[in-house]
Structures are given as structure tokens and as C-alpha cells.
Automatic annotation (TrEMBL):
<comment type="pathway">
    <text>Cofactor biosynthesis; molybdopterin biosynthesis.</text>
</comment>
<protein>
    <recommendedName>
        <fullName>molybdopterin molybdotransferase</fullName>
        <ecNumber>2.10.1.1</ecNumber>
    </recommendedName>
</protein>
<comment type="similarity">
    <text>In the N-terminal section; belongs to the MoaB/Mog family.</text>
</comment>
<dbReference type="InterPro" id="IPR001453">
    <property type="entry name" value="MoaB/Mog_dom"/>
</dbReference>
<dbReference type="InterPro" id="IPR036425">
    <property type="entry name" value="MoaB/Mog-like_dom_sf"/>
</dbReference>
<keyword id="KW-0501">Molybdenum cofactor biosynthesis</keyword>
<dbReference type="InterPro" id="IPR051920">
    <property type="entry name" value="MPT_Adenylyltrnsfr/MoaC-Rel"/>
</dbReference>
<dbReference type="InterPro" id="IPR008284">
    <property type="entry name" value="MoCF_biosynth_CS"/>
</dbReference>
<feature type="compositionally biased region" description="Polar residues">
    <location>
        <begin position="1"/>
        <end position="14"/>
    </location>
</feature>
<dbReference type="GO" id="GO:0006777">
    <property type="term" value="P:Mo-molybdopterin cofactor biosynthetic process"/>
</dbReference>
<dbReference type="Pfam" id="PF00994">
    <property type="entry name" value="MoCF_biosynth"/>
</dbReference>
<feature type="region of interest" description="Disordered">
    <location>
        <begin position="1"/>
        <end position="21"/>
    </location>
</feature>
<feature type="domain" description="MoaB/Mog">
    <location>
        <begin position="4"/>
        <end position="151"/>
    </location>
</feature>
<dbReference type="GO" id="GO:0061599">
    <property type="term" value="F:molybdopterin molybdotransferase activity"/>
</dbReference>
Length: 169
């Protein structure tokens, strides 16, 4: 599985604040998916909070990724435009994953209600927005990780039915 991580942050892009959530996400993906994943050369791409920059990074990463996970830019501030850029790119929404991430996060903090994260599909690439904090990235990854392999197998039309069989047992 080829996974790309994109951090959306004006200050991290400008070099005035260290990116913490992107590297944490890379670490979680590497640790969880082990040899089954390639994460964009071990470090996230960092882009500013601008629709065009986010959109372009998503489109570029769709060429070589099965999964793109963004971190940052999902809140209420005027510069938080990751969902808008994502909506320009995705062809189909994945509302179940959106609801699952929101619900799981809401069980840990009421602040999760302030996330506008989007999940969708472009071609055979799954695009997932996560909030920009390390804590939120961990919480959202806990929700996404158990279903990710199956989701990608379905998108690539390589599902052999074993996941459905496990659920019946």
C-alpha cells in the first residue's frame, strides 16, 4: 500500500513552527502497516493553507498513492481550507468514514465537533482529512487503521472476500 501524508500548515510551510502531526502520522502508518506500506519516503509533504496548493498536492499524490492522509486545516478559522480543496479533488464522498472518525473523536473530546474533515475517493485513491494536532491524528488513525486494507482492496478490485468472511465468524 502506498501512503502519502500531507501536512497543511502555513507556519510549518514557512518554517516558523515544527510539523508534529505529519511525522506522527508517518510513524503510525509505518508502525501499523509495516512492510505492506510505503509512506512518502518517511516524511510528510508540507503545504500552506491555500486551496490551490492543497489541491495540487492532492492531485500530484493521487498519481502514486493508494491513500493520501492530510493533517491540518480542518477547523473553523478562515485559513482552514483543507476540506474545500479536498472537495475539489474527490469524485465520491465516504460519509461512513467521516462519521466514524467524528464519532470516535467525540467520545474523547467535545472539540472534535469543530472538525470539518472530509473523506473521499478519486479514482482508486482514498483521501482522508485529519485535524492538525498529534492527539487528533492518533485518535483518527485508530478509527481508520482497522478498515484501511479492506477499503484499498475494494478500490483496487482485489478484495478476495476474506474480510467479509471474518465478520460472519
Amino acid at each position: 500500500m502506498r501512503v502519502s501524508v500531507i501536512t497543511v500548515s502555513d507556519s510549518s510551510h514557512a518554517g516558523t513552527r515544527a510539523d508534529e502531526s505529519g511525522p506522527k502520522l508517518v510513524e503510525l502508518v509505518d508502525k501499523s502497516l509495516k512492510v505492506n506500506a510505503t509512506v512518502n519516503a518517511g516524511s510528510p509533504t508540507v503545504v500552506p493553507d491555500e486551496v490551490a496548493a492543497i489541491r495540487d498536492a492532492l492531485l500530484e499524490n493521487c498519481k502514486n498513492s493508494d491513500v493520501i492522509i492530510t493533517t491540518g486545516g480542518t477547523g473553523f478559522s478562515k485559513r482552514d481550507v483543507t476540506p474545500e480543496a479536498t472537495l475539489e479533488v474527490v469524485e465520491r464522498r465516504c460519509s461512513g468514514l467521516e462519521i466514524a472518525m467524528h464519532t470516535g473523536s467525540l467520545q474523547k473530546t467535545p472539540m472534535a465537533a469543530l472538525s470539518r474533515a472530509i473523506v473521499g475517493i478519486r479514482g482508486s485513491t482514498l483521501i482522508v482529512n485529519m485535524p492538525g494536532s498529534v492527539k487528533a491524528v492518533k485518535e483518527c488513525w485508530e478509527i481508520l487503521e482497522p478498515v484501511l486494507n479492506h477499503a484499498i482492496n475494494l478500490l483496487k478490485d482485489t478484495d478476495d472476500g476474506t474480510e467479509h468472511q471474518k465478520m460472519k465468524e
